[in-house]
């Protein structure tokens, strides 16, 4: 039966891989953790300059890292990791069924039925979410064991508390959604036990304290690890778009369940007609489980209190799965085919859960509302197992048949699934051969790389960790948001997913500032190429040839053009030929933020209070005020040379200053006439900027008595300063 589960998930070692995109993302973290010389759970190969914490799935990544350290290839280690956790989930599903007084055969069928639910295997493309759902029986059994030990010896209570804390920790580091599901059902179980239990009041209070302390302690460990208490909440339209439509619960989607397709009971659905993404309608078919529950309850018509918990939680979780608005066969109106979010006016009526999703901590981050159906299905599964408290052979046969029928209806087409998961293995092997191996020849371990243009770079995780290089890029939207807060200013000036007209200038400055040894321009899509190989072309494919032509004209660079990417380095022969380092030459010849400020084109848009443009020069008019101010541009700390060209023979009382932070930080100020050169046409001086600023402003003030004209203004970082301070 476990072998069936492994085939359903595509987690058969050396034969298939459950998914491609998330396996590449997770394996990157696992490989990076394995690269660490000490027991360090952060990734240092990507998301630099700060170490990267995996936003979810650390429990699985650690397991894969351990398997890599014992000699398994990363792709194989991911499948072994998945199979290992599925084996654990199968064992504890069986144990929970036995704990609920079911026989050996029923429990094996129950474990199989649970792991063949569409909400488990249907989420393999989301990696650890599927494992988190699969492990719900283990988490819940850990709580029941804690509850049962509340009147036991001190030693047993301590042991069960430690085991429960371990379960909570595994849960929160595996997946956030399922940690909340586990918290909801275990807290509901405690509440019922507290109100109706026969154990002493003090033991029930102690149980509650222990339960909440373990959940809170595990969450605090997670918050400490990722460096924040919670992720940014999504807008309510996301919750609405990803809410489950009632039709999804009772009508299967074509191509998902083999038996429903065979009986012609399923219908086709696609993203052009339905809100959310495919996971909303392919993982939420619960009708077989409802029918199986009804059959199990019909066998024993005497209700008992053990059913209260799963029924109450089922109602709550199904309510939350609907999202903020009720949807009944709600398709997109014409003209909204490309939108994923759902506006309020398109829904049937509000459900009232919007307040919960907008105001309650943890719930605010659960933007994919439909995933609550995982808890609904878990409750239905519990109802099947608790329906018969006094089982007869007849009732056990009925329950067993119900579980087998549920499994038969829920599993996918195994031949189709096998072909799909085997293709993932083939794709990963091709990525290794066609991308990783050439890059291994063009880079060296320890080098710093940057993939430009940057995006949600799933592939960067895998490539950098495998090559043992370092890169600023990182995959995962939450990880990317965190990494960008630490990126150098010049990297943030590259627009994401596009090559703009200044790309070639910034690229040279990036290398000249010693921020990286190699720039890689992918000819593949760094996000979608991780999900399907050969990769679809990147959004910047039409600009690649032009930017390479511009870069090739630079004598300071070495360019290597491969089938899947282009590498750019500083020339290793330029200094030998000229005696000048390419970094110094680039910095002296280029002028872009954050290492240079340049104003040499004056127009009607030039900010001035008292100037006029004549033949491209900015002239005073005899009025007092600022001849020029701005441009509020980022500059890094360092020593700069100021050059102001123009005619300054009539300078009397004019002064020049440089400031930042909306004028609150004065960097430099001097009378213009005190720094005039001998030809009275150039103002020059050396200026020290002590820290990085985002809004540097240069101003020239005149009281109206000065006669000046300005042709250009430049503030350039000195080469030695750039080399020493760029990092």
TrEMBL record:
Record flagged with keyword Membrane: yes
Domain of life: Bacteria
Keywords associated with the record: Membrane, Transmembrane, Transmembrane helix
Species the sequence originates in: Pseudomonas fluvialis
Membrane-crossing residue ranges in chain numbering: 54-72, 79-97, 126-146, 162-195, 201-222, 242-260, 280-299, 306-326
Keyword rRNA processing on entry: no
Protein name stated in the entry: Uncharacterized protein
């Amino acid at each position: 039966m476990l072998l069936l589960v492994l085939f359903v998930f595509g987690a058969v070692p050396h034969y298939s891989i459950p998914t491609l995109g998330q396996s590449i993302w997770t394996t990157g973290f696992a490989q990076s953790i394995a690269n660490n010389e000490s027991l360090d759970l952060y990734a240092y190969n990507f998301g630099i300059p700060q170490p990267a914490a995996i936003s979810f799935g650390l429990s699985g990544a650690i397991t894969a890292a351990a398997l890599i350290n014992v000699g398994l290839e990363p792709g194989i280690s991911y499948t072994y990791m998945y199979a290992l956790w599925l084996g654990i989930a199968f064992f504890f599903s069986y144990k929970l069924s036995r704990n609920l007084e079911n026989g050996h055969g029923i429990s094996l069928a129950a474990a199989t039925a649970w792991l063949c639910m569409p909400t488990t295997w249907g989420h393999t493309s989301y990696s650890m979410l599927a494992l988190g759902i699969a492990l719900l029986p283990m988490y819940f059994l850990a709580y029941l064991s804690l509850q049962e030990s509340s009147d036991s010896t001190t030693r047993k209570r301590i042991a069960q508390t430690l085991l429960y804390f371990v379960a909570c920790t595994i849960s929160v580091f595996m997946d956030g959604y399922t940690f909340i599901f586990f918290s909801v059902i275990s807290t509901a179980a405690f509440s019922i036990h507290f109100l109706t239990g026969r154990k002493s009041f003090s033991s029930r209070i102690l149980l509650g304290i222990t339960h909440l302390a373990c959940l809170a302690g595990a969450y605090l460990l997670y918050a400490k690890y990722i460096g924040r208490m919670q992720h940014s909440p999504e807008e309510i339209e996301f919750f609405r778009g990803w809410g489950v439509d009632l039709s999804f619960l009772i009508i299967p989607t074509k191509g998902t369940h083999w038996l429903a397709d065979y009986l012609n009971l399923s219908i086709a659905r696609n993203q052009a007609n339905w809100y959310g993404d495919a996971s909303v309608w392919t993982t939420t078919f619960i009708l077989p489980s409802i029918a199986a529950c009804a059959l199990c309850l019909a066998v024993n018509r005497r209700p008992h209190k053990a059913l209260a918990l799963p029924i109450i939680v089922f109602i709550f979780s199904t309510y939350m799965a609907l999202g903020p608005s009720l949807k009944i066969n709600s398709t997109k109106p014409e003209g909204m085919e490309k939108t994923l979010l759902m506006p309020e006016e398109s829904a049937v009526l509000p459900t009232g859960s919007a307040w919960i999703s907008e105001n309650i901590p943890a719930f605010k981050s659960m933007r994919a509302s439909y995933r609550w159906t995982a808890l609904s299905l878990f409750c239905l599964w519990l109802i099947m197992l608790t329906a018969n408290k006094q089982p007869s052979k007849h009732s056990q046969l009925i329950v067993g048949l119900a579980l087998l029928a549920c499994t038969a209806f829920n599993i996918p087409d195994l031949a189709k699934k096998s072909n799909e998961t085997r293709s993932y293995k083939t794709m990963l092997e091709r990525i290794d051969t066609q991308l990783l191996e050439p890059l291994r020849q063009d880079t060296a371990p320890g080098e710093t790389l940057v993939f430009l243009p940057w995006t949600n770079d799933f592939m960067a995780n895998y490539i950098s960790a495998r090559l043992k290089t370092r890169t600023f890029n990182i995959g995962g939207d939450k990880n990317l948001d965190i990494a960008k807060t630490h990126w150098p200013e010049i990297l943030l000036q590259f627009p994401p997913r596009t090559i703009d007209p200044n790309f070639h200038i910034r690229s040279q400055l990036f290398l000249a500032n010693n921020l990286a040894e190699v720039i890689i321009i992918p000819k593949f899509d760094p996000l979608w190429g991780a999900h399907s190989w050969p990769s679809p072309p990147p959004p910047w494919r039409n600009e690649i040839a032009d930017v390479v032509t511009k870069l090739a004209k630079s004598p300071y660079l070495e360019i290597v053009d491969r089938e899947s990417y282009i590498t750019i380095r500083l020339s290793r022969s330029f200094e030998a030929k000229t005696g000048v380092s390419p970094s110094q030459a680039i910095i002296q010849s280029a002028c872009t933020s954050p290492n240079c400020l340049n104003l040499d084109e004056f127009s009607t848009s030039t900010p001035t209070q008292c100037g006029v443009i004549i033949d491209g020069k900015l002239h005073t008019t005899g009025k007092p005020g600022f001849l020029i101010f701005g441009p509020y541009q980022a500059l890094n700390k360092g020593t700069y040379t100021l050059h102001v060209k123009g005619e300054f023979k009539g300078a009397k009382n004019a002064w020049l200053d440089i400031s930042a932070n909306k004028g609150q930080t004065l960097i430099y100020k001097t009378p213009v006439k005190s720094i005039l050169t001998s030809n009275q046409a150039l103002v020059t001086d050396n200026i020290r900027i002590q820290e990085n600023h985002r809004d540097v402003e240069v101003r020239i003030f005149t009281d109206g008595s000065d006669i000046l004209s300005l042709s250009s203004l430049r503030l350039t970082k000195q080469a030695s300063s750039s080399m020493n301070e760029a990092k």
